[in-house]
Structures are given as C-alpha cells and as structure tokens.
Amino acid sequence: MDKVEYLVRLIEEKNRIFVLTGAGISTESGIPDFRGEKGLYTEYPEYVFDIDYFRKDPSLFYEVTKKLLPQLLDAEPNPAHKFVYKLEEMGKLLLVATQNIDGLHQKAGNKKVVELHGSYKTSHCLKCGKEFSFEDLVKELENATVPKCECGGMIKPDVVFFGEPLPQDALIKAQEAAKKATLCIVMGSSLVVYPAAYLPLICVQEKVPLVIINKGETALDSFASLKIEKRLREFCESVLKLL
Fold it and tell me: CB-hemisphere CA count at 13 Å for 218?
C-alpha cells in the first residue's frame, strides 16, 4: 500500500480529523513564506513583524504589506486547500487551525477554520480602536506610506506580531479540537513556531495517528505515523482522486 492509499484509508476510518496548516500550503498559491529560500526574511529582517518595532516605526512593515497585498488579492486556493475542504464536505473535519493570514481556507469553502496568527481581513486603530476592513486598508495604502485613522492613531492589521499573544479564542478552539481528534494531519509546516507546533503533540499524547505532509524535515517527524515528503499540490491531487 502506498502513502496515498494509506492516508485515504485513515481518512475513511476516522471521523474526527484535526488539521494544522502552515506557510507551505499557501506558497503553492503564490504567496511567499517567511523562512524559505525565497522567503520574506531573505529580503527583510525578522523584526519587521515585531510589535515593539512596529509601534516605533511601522513604515517597514507597510512596505512589506504593499508587496503582499496584490498576491493576497489574487491568490486562489490550490488542491491542498481543496483537500481540506473535501474533509469538511465529507463531515470528517473537526477543525482546521491555520498559521496563515491569507484567508484561502475560507475562500476554498471551509467554515470550520481558526486563524492562529490572525489575518489581514480586518485592521484596528491602535489609539481609538476603530475597525477597518481589508478594502479600507488597501484604499488607505494607495495614498499613504503608513495608514492612519481620522483620530491620528496608527492602523494595524489584525495579524499576530512577535511579542503579541495568539487570539485566545482561536487557540482554545484548536486545543479542544486536538484533544477530541481521532486523526491529526499537518500540512506545510516545519513545526518550529509555538504554541501552534504544540497542537499536534496533544494528538500524539492522546495516541492519535499523526500525518505530516511537508517538503523538508519538521520538528515532530519522529512522532509521525506517516511522513510525506512531497509537494502538497501533487500529493493532494492524488488523494482527492481517491476520496
């Protein structure tokens, strides 16, 4: 039995599947990651996403954001996103917890999603708390290097920066799903960023099979029941044909 067939059999047997996705699922849709060979950190320092640095000088972050916005607007779900949606359509998905900020799971049709690192979907003024939509942010950036609220405060997208806590409601939902799962699938994550990387360990502690689909090593490979070293797009296309 090859790895595609083995995963399909696992999916057929299990009815409470928890999925964790990382940057590798979005790079297949043309969105750059942070730590890869051509990632953002090869061009920009990591402190571009540090909340203290942002409060002092947000211009570098918005320089990066201006480059990302067209890609976020144009990106479409790929077969890996469609695979996760298929699990929900089959009634087998407990939850997908994503480290990505692009909204592509929702674009693929998923409803059972939590965004562990927030998203660009909304932004808030750091001074008065006013909420801005994604479209508002795009419009503001057409005319300003750093978008500001009418009160004079800086506008910050609701993405999680270094130095900020993860959204507690999202984290709690993900932890609860991991505890209830009968199968855990990790897709496109090297599992080095915590607390997200702790979620599959909850499943391991509960003696739940762990499947890791990632091009390259991950921090939890030794715990995996099945490790797939293939591009997500190709592998998920093969799985979708059999589901």
Answer: 30
Matching residue, tokens 């059972």:
112
b vs e for 44-74, b when ≥16 Cβ sit within 10 Å of the residue's Cβ? beebbbbeebbeeebeebbeebeebbeebee
Residue 242 in 3-state DSSP? helix
Asked whether the beta carbons of 181 and 94 are under 8 A apart, the reply is yes
Is 117 one of the catalytic residues?
yes
The DSSP secondary-structure symbol of 127 reads T
Lookup result for tokens 């290097």: 145
What is the pTM (predicted TM-score) of this model?
A: 0.92
The first and second tokens of residue 163, run together, are 């130095």
Instruction: Give me the catalytic one of 81, 105, 117, 124.
Output: 117
Domain 1-31+77-117+166-243 belongs to what architecture? 3-Layer(aba) Sandwich (3.40)
CA–CA separation, 69 and 63 (whole Å): 10
Tokens representing residue 52 in the block: 């203290």
pLDDT tens for each residue of 4-24 = 999 999 999 999 999 999 999
**CATH 3.40.190.10, applies to 32-74+118-159:** no
Q: What is the pLDDT of residues 84-132, one digit of tens each?
A: 999 999 999 999 999 999 999 999 999 999 999 999 999 999 999 999 9
